[in-house]
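Exercise 7 asks you to align residues with tokens for two separate proteins.
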Amino acid sequence: AAGALTSLAWDDKIAAIIVAAGALPLMVELLSGCLDEGKANAAKALYNLMGDDDGIRVAAVEAGAILPLVELLGDSSDNSRAEAAGALTSLACDDNIAAIILVAGAPPPF
């Protein structure tokens, strides 16, 4: 499911519909509750859903995305680490969120 959302989420209008349908908490749950491929797909889906939308970034933080993404940086899968870094980089566009990411234990440059 996360892989399919990754493909659909590139369109801002579709991303807004997906978020409104409640996808963010489900993606956050997948970040820590499935196999490596599922974790990577969930992180990539979050990245794509956030796009340039500050509101979706805040909603992702409120859904609890930061800590599982930070934890995923230490995953054994290169792909999972890369996708988590991408999602965290997108979140860090907001200075307040960037500070939260650092407090959660992510290494700089966030």
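Second protein for Exercise 7:
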Amino acid sequence: NDAEAIRLYRQVIAFSETFLGPSHRHTLRAITNLAIALAVVDNLSEAIELHRSALEAREKTLGPEHPETLQSVSNLAVALHDRGDLSEALALQRRALEARERLLG
């Protein structure tokens, strides 16, 4: 059930933020999972907000071209696309693609 999953993700995030910190990888993964679950139930505004916050934290802690950061860029792009923000979604996907091409060859 989607509502139960969302409730549980919120609990995991609260626990993780308390014991691991707001920028810990496990906390950010839980935030991303919540954002994806929210997008599934068409709560795109909150999903996008969470994807942006996870991306910001990953950029600060891991750097702009770390694989997890680039996945956050793509996740945000997908949510923006779903909301119809095509130009921003395309720019983000290009950013992720270009960085991956540089890193992976």
